Amino acid sequence: MILANVQKVQNLLKYTFGIVPIVAGLDKFTNVLTDWSQYMSTGLVELLPVDIGIFMDIIGVIEIAAGIVVLVRPQIGGYIVALWLVLIALVLIVTGNHLDVAVRDLVMAIAALSLVKLSE
Known about the structure:
With 120 residues, the protein is an all-alpha fold. The chain contains five helices and no strands.
């Protein structure tokens, strides 16, 4: 019974951290869910060698790839998603904007690491 529950939790985390990054990545191309550029600091945008729209497209591709890796290899993908979420949180903390989102991203990073542990 306990093993079955562990498997259910592992699957729930795997599909969550597989599907959500794919959806968020796809939305970087459409901005249906939100205007993702609002989460970027002005200083960071000024340092970009490309237009913010192109940068968001690159971010979208990375997120889609991360979600696919989670679905195929959760032991590796969980680490990738956790690192990605921590990096996002750090950018938000440094800029002092959207601190609530930063906290949620850190909590999700811990959950992604939990997926790794359950998948070992």
